[in-house]
Write a structure and sequence with these properties.
This protein has 738 residues and is α+β, with helices and mostly antiparallel strands. The protein has five domains: 107 residues, Roll (PH-domain like), CATH 2.30.29.30; 72 residues, Recoverin, domain 1; 73 residues, Recoverin, domain 1; 310 residues, TIM Barrel (Alpha-Beta Barrel), CATH 3.20.20; 130 residues, C2 domain (Immunoglobulin-like). The chain contains 19 helices and 30 strands. Helix 13 runs parallel beside helix 14. The termini are far apart. Keywords: Calcium, Cytoplasm, Endoplasmic reticulum, Glycoprotein, Hydrolase, Lipid degradation, Lipid metabolism, Membrane, Metal-binding, Nucleus, Repeat, Transducer.
Length: 738
Amino acid sequence: MMAGSTLRKVKSRSWKKQRHFRLLEDGQTIWYKSRWAGRGHSTFSISELEVVREGHQSEVLLSIAEEFPADLCFTLVFHGRQGNLDLVADTPEEARAWIQGVRKLIHKTQTMDEKERLDQWVWDWFQKADKNKDGKMTFKEVRKLLKMMNVDMNEEHALHLFTMADKSDSGSLEIEQFVLFYKMLTQRDEVWKVFQDYSGDGEKLMLEELENFLKTEQQEGEQSVQHAPELIDRYEPSDSGEHGRAMSFDGFQMYLCSQEGSIFKPEHRELHQDMSQPLGHYFISSSHNTYLLEDQLRGHSSLEAYIQALKRGCRCVEVDCWEGGDGEPIVYHGHTLTSKILFRDVISTLKEYAFKTSDFPVILSLENHCGVEQQTVMARHLSQILGDTLLTTLLDGTIPQQLPSPQLRGKILLKAKKIGGLEVCPDGTLTDEVSDDEEMPNDEAESASAENPPAECSNHDQRPLISFPCSGLSDLVVYCKSVHFHGFEQARSHGKCYEMSSFSESKAKKLAKEAGADFVQYNSRQLSRIYPSGLRTDSSNYNPQEMWSVGCQIVALNFQTAGLEMDLNDGLFRQNGRCGFVLKPDFMRDGHTRFSPEKPEERQGYKPRRLSIQVISGQQLPKVNQKEGSIVDPLVRVEIYGVPQDQSKEETSHINNNGFNPVWNETLNFVIHVPELALVRFVVEDYDKASRNDFIGQFTLPFTCVQPGYRHIHLLSKDGTAIPPSSLFVNISISELT
C-alpha cells in the first residue's frame, strides 16, 4: 500500500477512471491523484472510514459486474453521509492486499486508547508542519503550523516555546522535541487549577484526594471509593499509579478527556432500559422516504440510503411502491424526477442490513400505488426474500390487547393496509382504512379540528392511493395496520392496539396544541407516525421534539439532511445502546394519563430541575475557513429542547482569534420543567458581526444522560461524525428547583 497501486475509481457504468493510490508514511492517510492532474491530489484519513466491502457490494459495482469480476472490486464506506468510494484493482491479489490492509488499519484506529490517539495527533501535526519532509521542523514551519492549528500566538511567545523545546540548540525540532513543544502548547491551565485544588503536594492526587474530587465535584457519592482506584489503573501512565495509590496530572487530564470523563453517562450508552413493554411505549427512530439521498423532486433513489439509515439505528423505514416495467414494482417518489430502484432490491437490502446495528425489530412502512398484479409480486418478494424474518402471524395466536414488545429481535413488521381486522369478520366486510401520507400538499391550510379531521388525499401525487390491497399483501400485515384517523374519541371507544394512523407535521402540531393530553393518551395505546409536509421538497425537516412531547413514537425525518433536527434525533437515540428504541417516561405510558406538555406543572410527580453550565474552555476547534491565516472567533450556545416551557437558548461571548484553546469561564443557567423529555444541545460557532455565524461543531444528548461535574464534550461535525480532538470543557451542576 505504501508503494502504491493504480486502481480504477468508479462512479457509474460510464465513469471509470484510473487513479494512483498510496498509503502515506503516517500509516493513517490515503493519498490519490490522476496521472494527468499535475500537482493536484486528494487525501482522506483512515479514521474517516467505517468499513471495507468486498466484491460487488454497491449499486455502482453491481452495475459493472459483467465487466469486472467480484474479486477485483471493493468499496470504501465512510462515516456519516459521505458517499462511498468504489474501486477496481487490476488483479485479485492487488484487491486482496488493499482490502486486508485497509481493514487492519481501520481496526487499529478504532481500538486505539487515549494515549495512542494523542500520539497519533502529535504525529499528524508534525507531518503537516514538516513541509520539506526532512524529519525536522524549523521555526518558520512552526509559525505556519500555529496558523493551521487555529492559534493566533505572538511571535515572541512562539519562539520562546520553540527554544525551550530545542534542547540541542540546532534551530530545528525532531519528533521527540516536537512532542515536548506540543505538550507545552497544549498545556491546560484550567485543568491544572482543578488538579491543584485537590492535590496536597501539587504533584499528584493521592487515592483519598481523588476519591474526594469524585465525591465532591463529580457527584459520585459512595461509588467514588470503588471508582478512584479503577481510574488510576486505567489512566495513570507513570509508575506512581501502581497498585492504584496515586494519579499524576497527566493521568488526571487523560481521565477527564476520556469517554468516562465525558458529559454522557457511561451506563446510559449501554442497553439499560426495560425492553419488555409494548411497542407503543417507546420512541422509535424513523425515516421518511428512506430511499432518497437528496431532495424530493430530482434526488437520487438508492439502496445506499437504506443502508445509511439503518446503520444510524433507524427502526422504521419507508418504501413507496409504484407500477414498474417487466412486471416488477419500483420504488421512487411518484410523479417526480427522482430515480427509480427495484422493490425486490430494497427488500434484499433490508434482509442484509436491517440488524447489523441493532437487532431490535424494524417496521417497514409501505406506501402502495400498485395494482393487484404487482401487489402479488410484492407479496411474493416479501415472503421469499425475508422468509422467517418477516412477522406474519400473531405471537400466541390470540387477538392482542396490547402490542408486542421490541423483544421481537431480528423481526420485520409490515405496516400497510389490511383487509378486515385481526378478528374474523363473519360478513366479510372491509373496514375503513387508509394508507400513510394521505394529505394534500397545502395541508398547512387545513381547518381540521381534533375530533373531526377531514377526508384526505395523497400529499405526493394528489390522488388517492390504491383503495385496497390484494389478499396476499394484506395477509402479511399483523401488528401495524394503517387506518384513517377519526378523532380521539372514536379511537378511545373503538380503536385497536394494532391500528395506526399517519399525520402530517401540520396536523400533528394542530392536534398537539388543541388536544395535547388526548394525543399523549392516544399514543399510550396505539402507534402514530408523523411525516414531513409535502412542501418540504428540499428534504428539510421539522422539529421532532414537538411530536415526542405528545408521545408520538414514529417521528419520521429525512435522514439524508444534516442539521438541527437530525442532531436532536441522533441525540435522543444516542442512549440505550443506540438500539433505535427509547422508553417513554412513565407518565406517557399510563393509559389513563392526563399529562399535557402545555401544562407540565399539573402532572403528578412534577419536579423541575435547575441546570447550571459553566463553559470553561474549548480545545483544538476545527477551522471553518481553510484560507491560510484564517482563525475562528468561537462562541458557545447551549440550547434546550423539550415541552414549550423548556425551549430556551443562552450563549457565551465570542473569543477573538483563538480556535486552539479559547477560555470563556461563563455560566449559563436554565430551568427544566420536564427533565424526562428535555434534550441539551451544545453548539460552537465562528462569530461574524457582518453575516450569519459559521457552524463549527455540536453535541446533543438527553438531559437524563448528563453527568454533573467537570466534563468534556466531544464535538461532532454537521454530519454527526466525530472531529477529534475538538472538545469543550465544562462544569455542570444539576439541582432541584426550590
